[in-house]
Amino acid sequence: MKQRIFGITGWKNSGKTTLTCKLVEEFTRRGFSVATLKHAHHLFDVDQEGTDSHRHRKAGAAEVAIVSGNRWALMHELGEQGEPSMQDMLARLSPCDLVLIEGYKREDHPKIEVRRKAALDQSPLPDTGASIRAIAADHDIAEAHVPVFSLDDINGIADMIALETGLGETAA
Prior knowledge:
alpha/beta; 8 strands; Rossmann fold
């Protein structure tokens, strides 16, 4: 079965993470299993200084897995390697009904553009590949060539994503 993916993209502070979380909650409520893939443009660390796993990485371990009764995580240091592609990262995810991708605005996958008045940049994203299927905004959008949703219309946005990806209304 082909992996179902849909993106949530927009400029910094546009509300991507909030919308992603609300969509995860909605699709989970509908009975679907959902994974997320988030792109970060900055240095980030999921490990805290002083923890054993942080010490392992700082000592030079290329990968560190940390496991408990509640969760596990695998950290991979890239070193001199380039950033893995979105497709490479999607291939690493466990099977699920839907993958929501936050960020990756320049990749050519179906996505919704999030626009908020409080965003640092309010200009429309360039969409040379016609991958933006809809816009979710907290204000009126004068000219749009795709459907426009209110940022609060989580059901409507989820329905559009389910239709676009062939997911269906509820899990079987």
